[in-house]
Amino acid sequence: MKVKDLLEPNPILVNEECTMGELSKKFQESELKTAIILDGKKVKGMVSIHDILANIVPYHIRIDPKLADAMPDGYFEKNYKKVKEMPVSEIMTLTTDCLHLEDTAISAVSQFIEKRRRALPVVDDEGNFAGLITRVVFLKLMAEV
Amino acid sequence: MYWLSIVLFVIAYALILSEKIDKTKVTMLGGCLMLAFQVLEQHEAFYSERLGIDHNVIFLLIGMMLLVYITSQSGVFEFVAIQAAQKAKGNPQVILFSLAILTAISSALLDNVTTVLLLSPVILLIGDELEISPVPFLISCALASNIGGTATLIGDPPNIMIASKTNFSFMDFLVNLGPLVVLLMVIFVAYSHFVFGRKMKVKEENVERLMLINSYKLIRNKPLMYKSLAVLFVTLVGFLTHSITHIEPATIALTGGIFLLFISKEDAHVAFEKIEWHTIFFFIGLFLMVGGLVKTGVVEDLSRLVVTTTNPTAESTVFTGLVLIWFSGIASAVVDNIPYVATMIPIIANISDQLGNPEVVEPLWWSLALGACLGGNGSPVGASANVIALGFCAKSGSKVSFLEFVKLGMPITIITLAMATGYVYLRYYS
Questions:
Q1: Of the residues B63, B173, B208, B382, which has the maximum number of CB atoms within 10 A of its CB?
Q2: Do residue A60 and residue B122 have CB atoms under 8 angstroms apart?
Q3: What is the pLDDT of residues A14-50, one digit of tens each?
Q4: Which residues of B touch A69 (CB under 8 A)?
Q5: Dihedral in degrees, nearest 10, Cα atoms B323, B328, B333, B338
Q6: B182/B175 Cα distance (integer angstroms)
Q7: What residues of chain B lie within 8 A of the CB of A77, using their CB?
């Protein structure tokens, strides 16, 4: 099995100006929880739901998590309001790690393990975006074996 | 060997100054080369009290690091800081004042780097809730930690090193430096209010949010908090009664740290991993390098030079003492004060031998401690606490440049050094 046979049918594609609020809505409407940020046909970066959540938790709580226990109810909502209007470009992971359409399934899995990612973009021979592949797709593949 | 030791030392010092290579790598390589070229024999490095690694300093640091790490796991530091902000009813000026005092006391009794590390996230939280910049609080916290740490034997590494060489007790530091530090803190609080406090304003709704924080939930482990505070208290009593019991500070700190580890449920592997081995090896490397300089006679020549230049006599060292405060202050603002003090200690010890009167040299030790600790406020690189506070400023989105820090830190450095000069003169020489 090749990567080109495992692509997600409807990847979420956004530009850099898309806000976190807008992206959150797209995530709600899709089964996918990772979006690709394109610059023309090239992959610029990736944003996952984890990136959004990580930004809702302020830096001081990320380094001293026990501070979160003392915060009153509504703290999550208050912080989400702060980051809602931020463009995804501020939190995206710049992507240089892409799979190729002709990569094998085992090669793709090894990349997922090595990069510790939940999803990876796929590019064609010209380096243009060709699709998205997630870890979940391998479950389907395993069921077929 | 004489010139080789100088070359190794100068290269290492230049590399530390350049900050291009990690300072522990530099001192450890320098120390190892001192051993490899047999400038210093391994036996001397490991066992000689005069030339070797100062195990008093090493084990005192390890003991205190263990104590502080385990205590920090209880959440008591965060609890006290939030309580201070809530007791101040969200008034930023009062919070600035109370956090400065809290930092100074904590730095004097524990250590300033840990204090700033533990308080900084809480300061960011307070700033976030009050919707005001955390920068004044973070900078004030770093400056106060350097002043507060000056007061005691365990407050700042230079004091630990001086104590180990001179056998000054915890009480000696407290009695000789404590009164001045109290005075300096009064001035610092006024300075801090003048520079930062006057401009800070908060909205009522933000104060209400701050008051909603449940600080009691920050205490994650109540039994551990009680155990930690009890052991810390006993350890401090141990330091205070050292002149009666003659138990060395390193023994007290190490026993306190290990005892707390024993009675707490902390994982020993994790606790030992949390010891700042990077710092410990930095000290080991430094001791090896300075040991080489002492053995080859470089330190003796340097101390002769100091004697010739500043002309101390067996009756009075007044000029040397006053020059030492300012020289140490400037040097510590420019370079890390730990290698500076490590170099100066054998020089002053040598002056003491040359003059043949240890009593007349005693003010020089206090001058060195004051200059080295207070000078750290002069620039971002003057003290580790400054580097940490500035790191938190940057992470909070308010980067403070080198020059901006100097503008804030240098005036208080000059004020405190001037006050230290007056204090040393009036107390020891008039």
A1: B382
A2: yes
A3: 999 999 999 999 999 998 999 999 988 999 999 999 9
A4: 214, 217-218, 220
A5: 180
A6: 11
A7: none
Query: Is 0.85 exceeded by the ipTM?
Result: no
Instruction: Tell me the two tokens of residue B214.
Output: 């449940």
Cβ distance of B125 and A61 shorter than 8 Å: yes
Confidence band of B192 (pLDDT split at 50, 70, 90): very high
Q: Does B426 lie at the interface with A, CB-CB under 8 angstroms?
A: no
The answer to whether the Cβ–Cβ distance between A70 and B217 falls below 8 Å is yes
What are B259's two structure tokens? 């005892």
Q: What distance lies between CA A88 and its chain's CA centroid?
A: 11
Q: Are B45 and B54 within 8 A, CB to CB?
A: no
* Spatial distance between the Cα atoms of B87 and B80, rounded to a whole number of angstroms: 10
Of residues B121, B212, B216, nearest to A67 (C-beta): B121
Mean pLDDT of B4-28: 88
Burial B378-407 (b: 16+ CB within 10 A, else e): bbbbbbbbbebbbebbebbeeebeeeebbe
Contacts of B122 in chain A (CB under 8 A): 60, 64, 67
CA distances from B131 to B210, B262, B391 (A): 10, 43, 20
Q: How far apart are CA B104 and CA B111, in angstroms?
A: 10
Q: Please, are residues B185 and B150 in contact by the beta-carbon 8 Å criterion?
A: no
Tell if the pTM clears 0.80, that is, is over it.
yes
Q: Other CB atoms closer than 10 Å to residue A40's CB: what's the count?
A: 8
Widest distance between CA atoms in chain A: 52
CA-based nearest residue to B377, from B162, B174, B141: B141
Mean pLDDT of B114-125: 90
Q: What is the arrangement of strands in the sheet containing A99-100, beginning at the earlier edge strand?
A: A99-100, A119-123, A129-134
Q: Flag whether pLDDT at B41 surpasses 80.
A: yes
